[in-house]
User: What shape does this take?
Amino acid sequence: MTETRRPKIGLFAGGIEQYWTECGMDGLPGALEKDILKLKNSLEIDCEVIYPFLVGNESDAKKAGKIFLENDVDIVLMYHASYIDDAMSVALIGELKGIFSVLFLSQGRAGIPDSFSLTDAGTTWGVNSAAQLPSSLKRLWPDYDHGFVFGHIDNPRALSEIVSYAKAAKCVKNLKSKKVGFLPHRSAVVPMYDTYPDESRMIGQTGIKLSYHYIKELLDRMGEVPGPETINLTEELYEMCDVIEPPPEEISLAAKQAIALEKLVTEAGLDAIMIDTGPGMIPMCGMIPCVGMARLIDKGIIVTTEGDLSVAVSALIINELCGKPVHFWEHLMFDEKKNWVLGGHEGGSAGFSMARKGTRPKLRSTQYVNFGKTPGAPYHGVLPEFITNPGPVNLLTLFRAESGYEMRLARGESVDLPPFEIHYEHTVFKPNVSLDHYFNRIAQAGVCHHFALVQAEISSEIEKVARILKMRLEYLTD
Assistant: This one.
C-alpha cells in the first residue's frame, strides 16, 4: 500500500572552522546558522528535516553522517553554507552507506548587493567549494553518483528540485519492500514478447519481491465467500453502475470473484498483482475478474493485466510518488488531426473512483461482443466502462533493453470528453508532441506496449527515480 510518511532529508551544512577559530570571523557561525535554519524551515513545508549542527571539521562531518544513518533519512542534502573542504565531504560520504546525496550549490542571498560586510561575504564562499566538489568526487570515485541543484536558498525552483529528489529517494527505498505477485503467469494465450518479464533483472535493479499464485487459490476463496457478502456487493454494483448487457447471475458471479480476489491479495500481503486471464482463468473460475481488479485499484493495490511486470513496477513508482491510482493503458485508436490516442485495456484496468466526475460507470459485456464460443465462460462477461478525468497525465513503462530495464516516459493531457461506448475503461491521451513524432519515438526507443497512466505531472520526480536506480530514461514526448 502507499507509504504516507513525508520524505526525510538529512541537512549537512557548515563551513571550515578555521574562519572563526584561526581568523577574526567570530560572527560567521551565527550568520551561517541563520541561513541554514532558513533553508531548513523552507524544506520542512514538504519534508521532515534532520539538521544535527553546524559542521566545521572532519570529525563533525563523520558525526553528522552517523546521525543521518541512524535517522534513516532518504537523502542527504549537502549545503555548503560557507567553504567546506573536500576532506569534510569525503568524511560525510563515508558514513552514509549508500544514502543518496544531493549537492546544493547555493547562497543565503538572492544576488550580489552593492555593499556587504566581510562576514556577509563569508556566507557565500560555499559557492566555491560546491563548484569544486563534483570534480573532486569524479577523481576520487568515477562511478559515484549524486544529485545537483543550483539556486539561492529562497529560489522556489531549487527548493522544488530538492523536494523532488527526496520524494524520489523515498520511492526507491520503499520499492525494496514491495511484494508483487503473478496470477498465475505472464501473457500466455497471445504471445507478447515485449512484455515477457526478466524477473531476476527486475529484482536486481529495483529490489522488489516476487511471488507466484495460482488459479486454484482464487477458486478456493470463491468457494469460501459467504452468500450474504455476495448479495451485498451485487446490490452495491447495481447502485453504483448502470448495468447494460450482463444478467443478474453474471453480476453476482463478478461480485463473488471480486471478494475472493481481494481476500487472496490481502492474505498474500501483495502491493501489486499481475493477472493473466487465459488460458485457465475463465474455464476454472467462470469469469475474468474485472470488477475485482477495478475495486483493488480503488483500494490502492496496483493491478496489471496479461501478467505485465514492467507496468506493475512502473505503477508502484508512480503510486509512491503521488499516491494516485494508475490506469493500465495501451494504444487502441488515434485521431491524427486532433492529435488524440484513445486507449485503455480490457476491463479491470482502472478503479471506479477514476471515472470522470459527473458520469456514472457502466457494466458492459466484453469488448469482443460475447464469449459464446469460449468453453466455461459467461456469455456476456462483466466489464466496467467509463472515461477518466481530464488534466495533465504522465505515461510510464519499463522496457527490458540489452543492459537491463530502462524507463520510457510520455507527457501530455487527458482530453475532456464524454465516455465512449467501447466496453472498457478508457482515457483519450493527447501527447505534447505530434502523433507522428510520438509513434516514431516508440518505434525507435522500444517500449513495453502497456503503460501506467496517471493523472498527474510528476516527470521531475520520475527522472530522479531513474537516476537513483541508475536506469536509463528516454522521453517519448518533449
Summary: The CA atoms of residues 169 and 468 lie 7 Å apart. The chain has a mean pLDDT of 96. The longest strand covers residues 391-401. The longest helix spans residues 248-268.
